[in-house]
Give the backbone structure.
Amino acid sequence: MKSGLRKAFNQTKTPVPIPTRYQQYAGGGLFRNDDRELLLHAMEALPDVYGLVSLNASSVAKVKWHLYRKQSDGRRRFGPVEEDERKEVLVHPALYIWDNPNDFHTQRAYVEGFSQHLELAGEAYWVFSYVGSNPTSMYYVMPHRMRPVPSTTTLIQGWIYTDPDGQEHPLKLSEVVGPPALSFPCPWDVYHGLSPVAAALVDIRNARASGEWSANFFRNSAFPGGFIEVPNSWSEPEFDEFTDRNRELHQGIANAGRIGLLEHGAQWKPNQMNMRDMQFVELRKTSGDNLRRGFRTHKHMLGDVDDVNRANAETAEDLHARWTITDRLDRVKDALNGPYLKLFKANTSVEFDYESPVPEDRAAENQDLTTRTNAYVALTGAGVDPADAADVCDLPPMTHTPPADPPAPPPDPSADPNPDAAQMMDEIDAFRRTLYNLARQ
């Protein structure tokens, strides 16, 4: 019965035909999936794009990974697990290849490389080399060179890689780990991902265009342009002479501010639009803000500290690690524990996991410990058994020792060290005086 259930749940056929035919693009027309090569170049188009992509990719790449044997009952890990519940696996082919992807990439360089693809194109691909039936190395490849072979029953039959020379190379499912496992899901394309860069593509183009316009503005003598009005038409030699002279005297930054001379009744009609009217500074700031919203990143993480203090800077770093970086790491972990481990025919008793990048909040931990300690003191003071109180307050078992009697106060140096002996001597002196009085009589 158990094997029958496993066979039923491991079937790969889709319940309904998902694609009718593969389309390269859909949706509102703002972004095409065959524009993924353009998205990869967005990192060099705008400083904000470079900063955000580099920040996320490098943050993901420096996190350390481990392979563990699962809990003894086979349950998946949800929340914190005690150290004795999972045993770290130090020798395993899947762990070796993940730590040493190929002869050219270290693990950190490999993770940072495919993480850049994930941020820019919304998807990443791992392609494997085999010796016999065993994977021996893995590489990340350009997303725009990979094309899925769709299937109406199994979603994907395989992949086709187009090399730089235009040659197509078919790849089996066992040779590739890619979307949908390694992607930000696209709502209108089940085969590809949708990146934050694609969502902000209009803003990136606007910012890039404003930068190019500003560069051309200064390249042309800091003049925004205009028209020269002449009373009569010029002959072609006269027009060429005027154009050459004007370029020689006024074009270029070195000639900015030189006085011009117009002949034969010509008049200068300046362009009414100037740099202030274009509001390029506001436009680029708005584009950068929209881009950061797509990446869900605080501006402090890009070095903008105009209105940042220590408190909200630490909060920004904590939220970035907690919500942005762990989101990327969880996607990679799902890919490792899913299609990646299947390539090694690994049983379900092992799993990859990462060291949390979220910084420890010392102040919150100290406050929590103080609160639990105060609760423990209140419970034991009310007569609750100390072991039960420690369990309720999530504290380790502690031996409860009743307070000792207070020590006796030190003796007074001026006081007689033996008050009983002094009283006896007084009584003896009184008896002697009585005998002396009787003898005199």
In short: Residues 310-343 form the longest helix (34 residues). Residues 424 and 430 are 10 Å apart (CA to CA). The radius of gyration is 40 Å.
